[in-house]
Amino acid sequence: MDFFDDIIIDIKQLTFSRGERYICKNIDIRIPRGKVTAIMGPSGTGKTTLLKLIGGQLKPDSGSIFLDGDDIPRLGRSDLFDVREKMGMLFQSGALFTDMTVFENVAFPLRVHTKLPQDMVRDIVLMKLHAVGLRGAAELMPSELSGGMGRRVALARAIVLDPALVMYDEPFTGQDPIAMGVLVNLIKKLNQALGHSSIIVSHDIKETLSIADYIYILADASVIAHGTPEQLKRNDSEQVRQFMQGLPDGPVPFHFPAADYETELMEGC
Amino acid sequence: MQAVADNLILLGRFVLERIAAIGRSGMILMHAVIARPDPATSFPLLVRQLYSVGVLSMIIIVVSGLFIGMVLALQGYTILVDYGTEQAVGQMVALSLVRELAPVVTALLFAGRAGSALTAEIGLMKTTEQLSSMEMIGVDPLRRIIAPRFWAGLISLPILTMIFSAVGIWGGLLVGVEWLGIYEGSFWSNMQNSVDFFDDIGNGLIKSLVFGLVVTWVAVFQGYDSVPTSEGISQATTKTVVYSSLAILGLDFILTALMFGDL
Predict the structure, then answer these.
(1) Is B2 exposed, middle or buried (0-12, 13-18, 19+ CB in 10 A)?
(2) pLDDT in tens, A76-113
(3) In the β-sheet with A62-67, what is the strand arrangement from edge to edge?
(4) Domain ranges within chain B, ordered by starting residue
(5) Contact A109, A160 (CB under 8 A)
(6) Interface contact B121, partner A, CB < 8 A
(7) Which chain A residue's Cα is nearest to B144?
(8) B17 touches A: beta carbon within 8 Å
(9) Distance CA A233, CA A214 (A)
(10) Phi/psi of residue A29, nearest 5 degrees
(11) Cα–Cα distance between A54 and A198 in angstroms, integer?
């Protein structure tokens, strides 16, 4: 079966720069519907920026990002806020509202976007919290949660409106092995159970390979490789191999560009 | 030659950045002012902000007002008693408070107490991605976070100013009448005869309204526009206090000249 019979996001010729530096240059990415797609690459290659571009929080220099026919960079402010109801995003830090309880955090999207009666809001929130295993933590404040729990609450909040697309920004960073395993399972299970499409931005290779259906690898402002996990494991490009096997030096240099080592040391003499 | 060109470039960049910042702050003000309020959600948010911005500033305002009124009466008495006109202490305390000291000192205290708190709160929300996540949930943080804080500041400051004046006059009464023995009847009647509702109290309130606008505008803008790092927030908080204090003092002179300059 071809992944790309049905796509939810179609990014065409996208270019975005900060000052003189290109974050992405003429990239094309297609995200299949109902699958888990990973966007991987070394730190600082603009993976998070790409999510912000899809979410419309940043405007690209050129190119288009179609979500079900809407070209996100060209939407007006209020249309953009409407389109965002179709998206859920899990931020790296969790980004829970610190002045609300766990329950209120998860209920927030429902309260602002729907006119559901109070008891139905309660049921939906408890169901989503149950799905991430934190129904018992409903009355806690975000400051009372551990990092992994916070991220699970944020995940419950991201899926509470049953969005068509869920974006995960570095979901595994800074998690202990147990929390990491829990998150990996949750992302996979939720994707299957709720039938949404997921985009995971990550540089945790093992975890991401275990759940992704399709992977894009970004480096030097462009897509250097893409394919299923098996295809990428067999990829013999040196740059891809360096990244997939976690080699410290290779086409992506270990050293930040600098003057000649010996010359610089001798300068002080 | 190169040095001159470099400096010109730096100057140009500095000016352009300032202009861009003014533009951004104007956009924020516009969104806060024209945001269509939805009474069911906006009102509780506003009440909560009125509490944290206004009610929680009461203690510092009441204590400062009391002491400033007491000092004014004491200072006024020592000068006026030489001319045998110590009965005018009430008038002096009331006029200096409602026209000048209450709006200015309240606004300065408000900038330090509430303005800096607003900046730090919004800045931290930005650092912890709460503003971004709100945007991604499909809620405009300018309407949900900025607008209620802005209106709360604008509403609170004139009320705090009136409280400051009232408590200050009471402090003047304590010192002038209770301690130094000025006749209470002339303390109040002199005040009543000389303080005009529109010219003095009204103008004082206009001042505090303008200061309220400036302080909250600066505070919410600095928070919203802060660099999302711990250093960025500390700078933004400092800027809020410095910019709004300078703006208060500068605007006070301009407003005083416009209101009372033709006397």
Answers:
(1) exposed
(2) 888 888 888 888 888 887 788 988 899 999 999 888 88
(3) A21-32, A7-18, A62-67, A70-71
(4) 2-260
(5) yes
(6) no
(7) A112
(8) no
(9) 12
(10) -135, 135
(11) 13
